[in-house]
Amino acid sequence: MSLHALKLAPQDCGACPIRHLAVCARCDGPELAKLEEIKYYRSFQAGQNVVWSGDRMDFLGSVVSGIAILTQTMADGRRQMVGLLQPSDFVGRPGRAIAPYDVTATTDLVMCCFRRKPFEDMMAATPHVAQRLLEMTLDELDAAREWMLLLGRKTAREKIASLLSIIARRDAGLQAKAAKGPISFDLPLTREEMADYLGLTLETVSRQMSALKRDGVVTLEEKRRIVVPNFDRLASQTGDDSDGGFRS
Amino acid sequence: MSLHALKLAPQDCGACPIRHLAVCARCDGPELAKLEEIKYYRSFQAGQNVVWSGDRMDFLGSVVSGIAILTQTMADGRRQMVGLLQPSDFVGRPGRAIAPYDVTATTDLVMCCFRRKPFEDMMAATPHVAQRLLEMTLDELDAAREWMLLLGRKTAREKIASLLSIIARRDAGLQAKAAKGPISFDLPLTREEMADYLGLTLETVSRQMSALKRDGVVTLEEKRRIVVPNFDRLASQTGDDSDGGFRS
DNA sequence: CGATTTCCTTGATCAGGATCAAACGAAAGG
DNA sequence: CCTTTCGTTTGATCCTGATCAAGGAAATCG
Q1: Per-residue pLDDT tens for B59-112?
Q2: What per-residue string of b and e applies to A17-31 under the rule 16 or more CB within 10 Å gives b?
């Protein structure tokens, strides 16, 4: 009901949790007012599709809260996740109305949407939106390329450790950033979604999760709830840093 | 010697082969003049490194001719290519001077370079460069995500066929676009570079190339010279289109 | 010229992860 | 309540691609 309320009465941009991170970050005063004019909120339930690949998208928008995933599917059903969208991440491409990927909410999701035409007009007229979007797109490109390294060269264990590490860093960055203490968080993905992200099968994901638990790298309570007793220990399993887990 | 000449006497932008494709595509008149002012050409021999990961980059620029690759390397030496740069493609990121990847010329290469500081100033001052760069970055992001699907889900044979198909489409698009006739081109990559791009070993690349030759999908003359007698036949091996190679 | 190096091919064997299969726990539904 | 469904775990076996190893062809160099 509160979500429904959101739909009907969008919050003031000034109070928006992603105000300084999203595509609107650089806008102010009249620009922000213009964005506010063409925006509306939409809510999605966990599991619901935001867009289907090949469909027309009449809006572009930002994730306000929740997690969404981008997936590509081959003709024979093989799937690959190509993006994990967190609050402030942008969905859609100016100038191209046909969606190239499926976008799916994996948790309850709230999006701040802009009608396509006025948003595109604004991009052409004022530079701040385009500049911020460029910055965000360059970041996404870096992330995609880091993921290419993971998909092409990492072992199953390293893939799992990398994913947990990324989610932990972001999700728990708030609670105990530099603290050496245990970090805990909820996985926003099913085993199958993890497999689709990592280029594995769900069985391999499950086995490697069990292996990490057996080795004491993580603790599982309730399948989705992860506890990382020592973050450096987890990080040492990702293959990213030189030491194979023996230093630090 | 002609390359050296290029370095000293940059061509006029009006005569540039990538004029309407590169980051300068939208610029004209005074903007183009300004770019011309801060640009210079650099040549690299095949095999030479343009930048090393972690090094400072004092310029940004466009590939004018030749092919360059972006690679990431893990601490233990595993490598993954994360980009194939063709004429008009852009190198470097405004606002970040430290290169995150190795950039290597795989053929003789000419680049049109802009000094970082004035280029960044220009990005802030005039929208046309930033707008075009956004467009190009979005295209690269799409390409990176397509590659994620390849790395995560395609078989070795599909990977090779996809790579050949991409190079063929681009490289031979000029010679015989819609013609049903054979297409031929030179691979700009060694077997090892192909392996690094595709997330395979060079032995597997070699074996799959032999298999495609044995099956009549391609003909090899001189190891690097590829002839594709029937492009649709090659395309049917990439896994991209529904039909497993039995239609068409 | 022969020697070295670079790039590529091919063979034999191994192993990591896929596939096939069964079963479990929790939640949802009749 | 029992049944179904969904997400997950675990086991057995298979297979694709990696690894280890040897040798060939062409270019480069002394």
Answers
A1: 999 999 999 999 999 999 999 999 999 999 999 999 999 999 999 999 999 999
A2: ebbebbbbbbbeeeb
- Our CA-based measurement puts residue B89 at a distance from the nearest CA of chain A, in whole angstroms, of 14
Cβ–Cβ under 8 Å, residues B201 and B79: no
- Distance (Å, rounded) from C-alpha B185 to C-alpha B172? 7
Close Cβ partners of B198 (under 8 Å, ≥ 6 residues apart)? A152, B150, B151, B156, B159, B160, B163, B205
* CA A8 / C1′ C12 distance in Å: 68
Amino acid at B165: S
d(CA B178, CA A68): 40
> Whose CA is nearest the C1' atom of nucleotide D26?
B222
For residue A151, the chain B residues in CB contact (below 8 A) are 148, 151-152, 199
Q: What is the pLDDT of residues A158-193, one digit of tens each?
A: 999 999 999 998 876 666 555 667 888 999 999 999
Widest CA span in chain A: 57
CA atoms within 13 A on the CB side of A83: 27
Å: B105 CA to C5 C1': 20
Span CA (A203) to C1' (C22), Å: 13
Q: Does the CB of B137 have a partner CB in chain A at under 8 Å?
A: yes
CA distance B119 to B99: 17
List, in sequence order, the alpha helices (H) in A104-215. 116-125, 127-153, 156-176, 191-198, 202-214
- Find the largest Cα–Cα distance for chain B: 57
Among A75, A133, A145, select the one facing B144 at the smallest CB separation. A145
A70 near A82, Cβ under 8 Å?
A: yes
